[in-house]
Specification:
This protein is mainly alpha-helical. It is built from six helices and two strands; from the N terminus they run H-H-H-H-E-E-H-H.
Length: 198
């Protein structure tokens, strides 16, 4: 039954998100944290102006709270938790600037990329110093590749590419959610098939 342990964190985080939603969303409305749509963008999106933004706070809180239950037994999640919070804070800052300026311009591309790079570098430093080996494991083929110093560049590329790929699709109804679903199902299958490794 050990393989079902991974299900509980997902269920706990989901339950916390469901509980927080009815409290956080009205509070964001009260603070007038409304979304600003570009006038020169997709015209059908103009009706979404005023929709509460910063809803990602719900997912960040549920992730942190759930992690606190497991961090003692699984300290290796600390680097991942740091990365999640770091990128989440960048997103929060971007949304905050959009709301404060009353337009759709938050952080510039260079500012966002620089902050992401800083967070990714700190993550890599914590990751390596947490006892992780610079080894790329391809689960489907059962291959392990010792990447040495190139491992750092590989991680930076994956983190920055993944984050900005989501940014490009975010805002189009269902697109980011649909692509995320594919990715999460893939991660779940990998975790399920590799349960014996841990």
């Amino acid at each position: 039954m050990a393989e079902y342990k991974m299900v509980w964190p997902v269920l706990i985080a989901f339950a916390i998100s469901v509980i927080l939603g009815p409290f956080v969303i009205p509070y964001l409305r009260k603070l007038k944290m409304g979304q600003t749509e570009r006038v020169d963008g997709v015209q059908s999106h103009l009706k979404k102006a005023g929709t509460p933004t910063m809803g990602g706070v719900i997912f960040l809180l549920s992730t942190v709270i759930t992690s606190l239950f497991y961090i003692k037994d699984y300290p290796k999640i600390i680097p991942v938790l740091f990365l999640t919070l770091g990128f989440g804070i960048i997103g929060f800052l971007d949304d905050y600037l959009i709301i404060k300026r009353h337009n759709n311009k938050g952080l510039t591309q260079l500012q966002k990329l620089f902050l992401q790079l800083v967070i990714a570098l700190i993550f890599f430093y914590i990751f390596i110093n947490s006892g992780h080996e610079p080894v790329l494991l391809i689960y489907t083929l059962g291959i392990e590749i010792d990447m040495g110093w190139f491992y750092g560049l590989f991680i930076l590329f994956v983190l920055l590419a993944s984050s900005n790929a989501v940014n490009l699709t975010d805002g189009l109804d269902g697109l980011a959610g649909g692509l995320s679903l594919i990715a999460f199902v893939t991660f779940g299958l990998i975790a399920w098939n590799s349960r014996g490794i841990y």
